Amino acid sequence: MVTIQISLPEDLAHDAEEMGLLKSDTIAEILRAQVRRLAGEYLLGIADKLAAAGDIPMTPEEVQEEIRAARRDQHAARS
Q1: Spatial distance between the Cα atoms of 62 and 3, rounded to a whole number of angstroms
Q2: pLDDT averaged over every residue in the chain
């Protein structure tokens, strides 16, 4: 666990406290959701760059076939 200290405008801190938003588990949930949202935005941003570079994203079926092929290779290496 990491302990952090933040400074907030007094009115925001008051409102957040009244709504129960300043609890550790609630803040962690809020931060996790924001991290997921930003990661999703980043991935969408690089998808455009990949498309512009001529790379075509794989379909879910192609991804699954790559996984199967890797597993076959691992199995063959063990045998």
Answers
A1: 44
A2: 91
Q: Tell me if 31 sits within 8 A of 22, measured CB to CB.
A: no
The C-alpha atoms of residue 23 and residue 25 are separated, in whole angstroms, by 6
Query: CA-CA distance, 14 to 8, in Å (whole number)?
Result: 9
Written as six digits, the tokens of 15 are 């409102």
Q: What is the mean pLDDT of residues 66-77?
A: 92
Question: Is pLDDT at 23 greater than 80 in this prediction?
Answer: yes
Residue ranges per structural domain of the chain: 10-78
Q: CA of 53: how far to CAs of 42, 44, 45, 56, in Å?
A: 17, 15, 13, 9
